[in-house]
Amino acid sequence: MTYDLWYWDGIPGRGEFVRLALEAGGIPYRERARQPDASLVDDMQAPRKQPPFAPPYLVAGRLTLGQTANILLYLGDKHGLAPASASGRYWTHQLQLTIADMVAEAHDTHHPVAASAYYEDQRDEALRRAANFRAERIPKFLGYFERVLDGYGDWLAGGRRWSYADLSLFHLVDGLLYAFPRRMGAVAGRYPKVMALHARVATLPALQAYFSSGRRLPFGDGIFRYYPELDGD
């Protein structure tokens, strides 16, 4: 089966977490919104008994799956991107939901009041939110993942192979390095296992063709944005 992945074109966004799993797993898919005959807005308005709230969503035959963590739970079960045991699958899903929490907080550093308002209209609030994120939330989340790796080894779910949660933590760290380079430069040394995982995923053979292709979109106006005034040591 070839999956249809729907996400806004032009930004990595939450769709990138799904792309990484599909690419690393060697799973055939089409980036539908990048095709000239497709409209994401029109497709979202198409009648479905179980419509997605927002992209990303994955069309698998007659099944439409929304929410990043839910899509990855499905791909993990279907394609072996998570441990085979029930406890391992739920643990990997739990890790993914925790990553999603931090992703939401990272986004809210530059849009703390309203996602529909311009950054410039909420800059003062963003300065306060980003200061708290840098001082408290980055250490809290990365410290948690460091403790997990301390107990499990090279990969978040244990074993000798990555899971989709490892790919997602890689992208999360990548986004933090882009959006908060000064802060990450100051604290990365506290989390050697997290940074080592980031480096391992970056060199996975299954991802090299994707990383070197034009299909991998750069950061910009998405979840992770770089505003110098929001960064700091």
TrEMBL record:
Pfam families per the UniProt record, alphabetical: GST_C_3 (PF14497)
Entry keyword set: Transferase
Gene3D superfamilies: 1.20.1050.10, Glutaredoxin
GO terms, biological process: glutathione metabolic process
PROSITE patterns per record: GST_CTER, GST_NTER
Record bears the keyword Transferase: yes
InterPro entries associated with the record: Glutathione-S-Trfase_C-like, Glutathione-S-Trfase_C_sf, Glutathione_S-Trfase_N, GST_C, GST_superfamily, Thioredoxin-like_sf
Protein name, entry field: Probable glutathione S-transferase
Organism phylogeny: Bacteria, Pseudomonadati, Pseudomonadota, Betaproteobacteria, Burkholderiales
